[in-house]
Write a structure and sequence with these properties.
single chain; mainly beta; seven-stranded antiparallel β-sheet; four-stranded antiparallel β-sheet; disordered N terminus
């Protein structure tokens, strides 16, 4: 009986496995602090050898899925912890988009943002606004060199309020 008492927790710990997304992820804290909304934390993740698929749930709302592919996925995240003692006070915004790994330079505007599957996500306890939205108004300049990616993005959404409106960042590869 003592053996089972020891083995069961050990098996439970071993059975818990974290899954990671395809491709290698490069994480970078935002260097351009002026563009990160106040009292929050911003970071950028780059997923190489990946593909961004926009799927719909049963409510006909979009959500992003990162799979193995031939693109680079950029995920920008702004997060802010909620007040101490609240269970659902955290707030975050994410921007997802993908660029073909062979592209070195890209400058697109407005409806052309659909070419990179640009998606804005708002995660919070804010009825009617939480969820993912396609970005249709904005300007993206993307440059990639051997050892660096430069992103200059400004955007607006009509359907939902958001704190992040501009991302300007250089990420070392």
């Amino acid at each position: 009986m003592k053996l089972y008492t020891f083995l069961i927790p050990l098996m439970l710990i071993h059975a818990c496995k974290t899954t990671s997304s395809p491709g290698s992820a490069i994480i970078s804290d935002i260097q351009n602090i002026d563009l990160c909304p106040e009292a929050g934390k911003c970071d950028v993740r780059i997923h190489k050898n990946s593909s961004l698929t926009l799927k719909k749930d049963i409510t006909d709302s979009y959500y992003p899925v990162i799979e193995t592919g031939n693109n680079i996925i950029i995920v920008f995240e702004f997060s802010k912890k909620g007040p101490e003692g609240t269970a659902d006070g955290d707030y975050s915004e994410t921007i997802h988009f993908e660029v073909n790994e062979n592209v070195e330079s890209l400058h697109i505007k407005n409806e052309q943002l659909s070419q990179v599957n640009m998606l804005f996500g708002k995660q919070c306890f804010c009825r009617g606004e939480a969820g993912y939205y396609k970005v249709k108004r904005g300007n993206l300049i993307f440059r990639k060199s051997e050892n660096e990616i430069t992103i200059d993005l400004s955007f607006q959404l009509d359907k939902v309020t958001h704190r992040v409106t501009k991302i300007k960042e250089k990420i070392k590869l």
